[in-house]
Amino acid sequence: MSSLKEGDKAPNFTAKDQDGKTVSLSDFKGKDVVLYFYPQDDTPTCTKEACNFRDNYQSLVSKGLAVIGVSFDTEKKHKKFITKYNLPFPLLADPDKKIIEAYGVWGEKMLFGRNYMGTLRTTFIINKKGIIIHIIDKVDSGNASQQVLDLLQQIKK
């Protein structure tokens, strides 16, 4: 679980996207950002989450949101994943886990009764000023974009 909390300044980062382009959080100043961390490209649950963001991308963009995915996969692997599923948003390569660790989403997981270290599926909503306004640590992969939209609705009330 991340040591970051709502109200904290989001750690800035710089990484390469699927096209080898350098992307920083500061590039999105003046925009609200959905920064989602996921374990691995082209695995069933991660694909479900990415496709859910894809399918609802226009709804998110119409609310002024930018969507960015991060995993420790390489730029090349991200490119294949984006092409295969026609994803309209950047995926950042974080093979050295600098962003993953800065956001505190590297931790112990369990699969088939075996403990191992991995990326904890987590979504951060960051406002125009670079402040974390919400952290979703119980991501519903098939409904990830709706979780974001529902939270924004609550925050705006």
From TrEMBL:
<dbReference type="InterPro" id="IPR050924">
    <property type="entry name" value="Peroxiredoxin_BCP/PrxQ"/>
</dbReference>
<keyword id="KW-0575">Peroxidase</keyword>
<keyword id="KW-1015">Disulfide bond</keyword>
<comment type="function">
    <text>Thiol-specific peroxidase that catalyzes the reduction of hydrogen peroxide and organic hydroperoxides to water and alcohols, respectively. Plays a role in cell protection against oxidative stress by detoxifying peroxides and as sensor of hydrogen peroxide-mediated signaling events.</text>
</comment>
<keyword id="KW-0560">Oxidoreductase</keyword>
<feature type="domain" description="Thioredoxin">
    <location>
        <begin position="4"/>
        <end position="157"/>
    </location>
</feature>
<dbReference type="InterPro" id="IPR024706">
    <property type="entry name" value="Peroxiredoxin_AhpC-typ"/>
</dbReference>
<dbReference type="InterPro" id="IPR036249">
    <property type="entry name" value="Thioredoxin-like_sf"/>
</dbReference>
<dbReference type="GO" id="GO:0005737">
    <property type="term" value="C:cytoplasm"/>
</dbReference>
<feature type="active site" description="Cysteine sulfenic acid (-SOH) intermediate; for peroxidase activity">
    <location>
        <position position="46"/>
    </location>
</feature>
<dbReference type="Pfam" id="PF00578">
    <property type="entry name" value="AhpC-TSA"/>
</dbReference>
<dbReference type="InterPro" id="IPR000866">
    <property type="entry name" value="AhpC/TSA"/>
</dbReference>
<comment type="subunit">
    <text>Monomer.</text>
</comment>
<keyword id="KW-0676">Redox-active center</keyword>
<dbReference type="GO" id="GO:0034599">
    <property type="term" value="P:cellular response to oxidative stress"/>
</dbReference>
<dbReference type="InterPro" id="IPR013766">
    <property type="entry name" value="Thioredoxin_domain"/>
</dbReference>
<keyword id="KW-0049">Antioxidant</keyword>
<dbReference type="GO" id="GO:0045454">
    <property type="term" value="P:cell redox homeostasis"/>
</dbReference>
<comment type="similarity">
    <text>Belongs to the peroxiredoxin family. BCP/PrxQ subfamily.</text>
</comment>
<protein>
    <recommendedName>
        <fullName>thioredoxin-dependent peroxiredoxin</fullName>
        <ecNumber>1.11.1.24</ecNumber>
    </recommendedName>
</protein>
<dbReference type="GO" id="GO:0008379">
    <property type="term" value="F:thioredoxin peroxidase activity"/>
</dbReference>
<feature type="region of interest" description="Disordered">
    <location>
        <begin position="1"/>
        <end position="20"/>
    </location>
</feature>
